[in-house]
Amino acid sequence: MKRFLLLTAVILAMLASSCSKYKYETVSGDPLKTRIYTLPNGLKVYMSVMKEQPRIQTAIAVRVGGKNDPAETTGLAHYFEHLMFKGTEKFGTSDYAAEKPMLDEIERLFEVYRKTTDEAERAAIYHRIDSISYEASKIAIPNEYDKLMAAIGANGTNAFTSQDMTVYVEDIPSNQIDNWAKIQADRFRNPVIRGFHTELETIYEEKNMSLTQDGRKIWEAMDAALFPNHPYGTQTVLGTQESLKNPSITNVKNYHKTYYVPNNMAVCVSGDFDPDQMIATIDKYFGDMQPNPDLPKLEFKPEEPITAPVVKEVYGPEAARVMLGWRLPAATDPSNDVADIVGSVLYNGQAGLIDLDLNQQQKVLSAYAYASAQPDYGMFLMAGSPKAGQSLDEVRDLLLAEAAKIRAGEFDEGLIEASVNNYKMQLMNEFDKYDQRTMFYVYSFIYGKEWADDIRQLERMEKITKQDVVDWANKYLGPESYAIVYKREGKDPGEQKIAAPKITPIATNRDAQSVFLTEIQNTEVKPIEPAFVDYKKDMSQFEARKGIDVLYKKNESNDIFTLTYVFDTGTENDPALNLAFDYLGYLGSESLTAEQIASKMYGIACSFSMQAGPTSCRISITGLGENMAEAMEIVEGLLNKPKPDEAILANLKADMIKSRADAKLNQGRCFGALQTYVFYGPDFIRRTTLTNPALEAMSSEMLLAKIGELMGKQHEVLYYGPQSEKEVTEALAMHHKTSAELQPLEKKHLQLLPTDESKVLMAQYDAKQLYYLQYANLGKQFDVAADPEITLYNEYFGGGMNSVVFQEMREARGLAYTAQASIMQPNYADTKYGYMAFIATQNDKMQMAIEAFDEIINNMPESETAFKIAKEGLISRLRTDRTVKEQVLWSFIRLRNLGLEEDRDKQIFEKVQAMTLADVEAAQEKWVKNRKYVYGILGDIQDLDLNYLKTLGPIRTVSQEEIFGY
């Protein structure tokens, strides 16, 4: 009966829209007021209006991904995603008619190349490809798509590929709908495969990066174990190294022709627009795309039930861990509602079985569980990391025991209701963001769901009983029906770096511009006037009591609150603060155990967090506004009357030392530590970091005294939520327990190290790819008058895909998957500007990458065309970007730290409009050119050219103990 009523609501909505040219579906009670159109050619259009900012999040989703790759050219979906940024017959070229014969010859040669096995012949063919590609590049206009997006003021230009989908995203100004649709329709209908071999270099870089990403290896092994018959398990999104060595442009073209068709696509939009105008514009540009009536259906042999554990092992440099997975039905299966509930009952970050039985009781270093849905099959995952001396099998057994509790019904039924309430709050939060709304539509389309079913999920969850959960677990979480992946430390025996063939850097043609781009630039659109924050109107300040000032902004959107206590002290003053906060998180209060605190907070859909940075620390409480008083009482009780437990502290110390050792095995963590060392130096690390012996020496009394002392200090309260100022004042007076006399704190400001001489700091990490950092202290304190020139320089030189850095380092030379450079802004009025350049590249490209960076940093390429686009894009974003909600409070603090009261964007907007390329050149001369640098390099030192590095400055190798501080 319920299903019938729901269908009736949808049908009535369709009839109600029949007076319009475009019929659409809606769902009664949908908080997003979603409209779903289906054009005659099959194109789906999802839309939701949200007028808080004059911008629109767009996503064009294609139901095709790694699972659809031809077996002979795996990785094709991901590769084609990259190629979709190369242009069409109208843009990305200055003369397509002259370019096409060369592109056709390159395509022909790649087909010969991929079928040739003799290495000498292959090298000769590739040399020919390289030569023709260089000639073709003289006609091409690299990255013109990104210039188009910059010209219309788009943010977040990007795309991603998974096993099931390829999605292209843009955040555009609301007055650029027509230009956006015109560009995208041409791009999706008529992509031209150009710059193929240099983009292949980028793919190689991404594949080589994956060789040190143990998380990716675990996922791929789990897929292979659970899905031996399905492409989820038989091939990967990045593809095999063999496929990447033998690419096929012909296969790419056939792939586009087959899958990039309107009856396999959805346009998803949310933001500030008129729905009738939006659908008319989409129809205008996409309506004549031809569908594919013979769209292939993925055929695969159904998987057999798993009757005994399937065991896989992977090796890599990172810390050991274990993952278990059970196969689940497709995303559209009704059982997935229960799967989501089971995921929360087992693990929710607060009060699930794993939270309380394993993490809270310190039986493992960390553990989690969740359900993962996909269109063809899903999976339920549990994973854990071992404590020092604990085996992976012991972690496995602990996880299996938690799954057994679900099967046996050994859990509090109240967890189900609490999980539903927390999911309700999560939806409330996500529906309040226009970009999140768009992604909801993407997943609904890709998973093949009915929007009515998606929007009613919460109602269905509210009806799930304990018996439903037990029945589901006994059906899907069998004691033997799982796969397990052991991630062990060690050399990966299958690791084989892709050696990149030599290529000639392509022409950048910075000043070339297509007629199409000129037309877009000359299109008149109604200007959107900027709206800068007026801190006297958009927020308020008041004193709750002496020593406690409040920054207040009302949440007009929903019932969620965030209350944050901010103290002007951090690890610069006391390196043990984070340990004290971590310890407190495991303790109970005078009236509640730690388990009761977690369960009560989760039950009222609230949570809290504590963290210390170098110069400040925060205690935050967030959740449903109606429960703020109760949440404050619980948290304040813990802060003021915690119950010490020496056994917990001993375990915490051991776990922290294990976590510290694990961090040294992770490439990203090692680079982060090296970067901190380069920026702030060894003294800063010593001041802010407890050594292992110092950590061991800490007692409960010492740590809890630090919390008590903190609550006796002056601090600021930030409130964003539905309560009035009066209600917040009363809540603080009643529930915020502090000393009667609050002592002042002296704030310290983080100071960058000077760079008086050039030098090289190297840290060892065994990988085929290095991380490179180039840093200079520019020696000048903050000056707000410099904002316009610095902002425009950063936009032109390193601001995105249209920037000099991206064009030179990735597009022209194929040196990196990621590269960036910019002038770093001070955070305080008395701190200095800095300069940072970063690149991740293969070890054998190090010298080329450093020399290329040095060249463009000191002799900045100049292009009036590129400058005009950078300036237009910046101005457009300044017109349409808005500081809203809780951001207002934090932006106020950032300005205050700099001694300012007015939104900095206001001056930038006013001044940039009259600025020229000469101003950027002057900024480069003034701020950047011919500086002394500290070069930080994380890599396999024995595989790097030290003789070359010596030409940059004296080399010093820093140990992990030096950069981490322990």
Features:
966 residues, alpha+beta, 7-stranded mixed beta sheet, 6-stranded mixed beta sheet, 38 helices, globular
Task: Describe the structure concisely for a colleague.
With 966 residues, the protein is α+β, with helices and mostly antiparallel strands. The protein contains 38 helices and 26 strands.
Q: Your description of this structure?
A:
- There is one protein chain.
- This protein has 966 residues and is of the alpha+beta class.
- It has 38 helices and 26 strands.
- A 7-stranded mixed β-sheet has the order 1-2-3-7-4-6-5, sandwiched between helices.
- Helix 2 crosses helix 11 (249-259) and helix 30 packs across helix 36 (917-928).
Give the proportion of residues in helices: 40-55%
**Based on CA inertia axes, which overall geometry fits?**
globular
User: Roughly how many Å is the radius of gyration?
Assistant: 29 Å
Spatial strand order of the main sheet: 1-2-3-7-4-6-5
Record the SSE blueprint.
Elements: H1 2-16, E1 24-25, E2 35-38, E3 44-49, E4 55-62, H2 76-83, H3 96-115, H4 119-137, H5 144-151, E5 155-161, E6 166-173, H6 177-189, H7 196-210, H8 214-226, H9 231-234, H10 241-245, H11 249-259, E7 265-271, H12 275-286, E8 310-316, E9 321-328, H13 336-346, H14 353-359, E10 366-372, E11 378-385, H15 392-408, H16 414-430, H17 434-446, H18 451-455, H19 457-461, H20 466-476, E12 482-489, H21 515-522, E13 540-545, E14 548-554, E15 560-567, H22 577-584, E16 588-589, H23 594-603, E17 606-612, E18 617-624, H24 628-640, E19 642-643, H25 646-663, H26 667-688, H27 692-697, H28 700-710, E20 715-721, H29 725-735, E21 759-764, E22 769-781, H30 787-798, H31 804-812, E23 818-824, E24 832-842, H32 846-858, H33 864-880, H34 887-897, H35 904-912, H36 917-928, E25 934-939, H37 946-949, E26 955-957, H38 960-964
Parallel strand pairs: 3-7, 8-12, 14-20, 21-25, 21-26
Antiparallel strand pairs: 1-2, 2-3, 4-6, 4-7, 5-6, 9-11, 9-12, 10-11, 13-14, 15-18, 15-20, 16-19, 17-18, 22-24, 22-25, 23-24
Helix pairs in contact: 2-11, 3-4, 5-33, 6-12, 13-16, 13-20, 15-20, 22-28, 30-35, 30-36, 31-32, 33-35
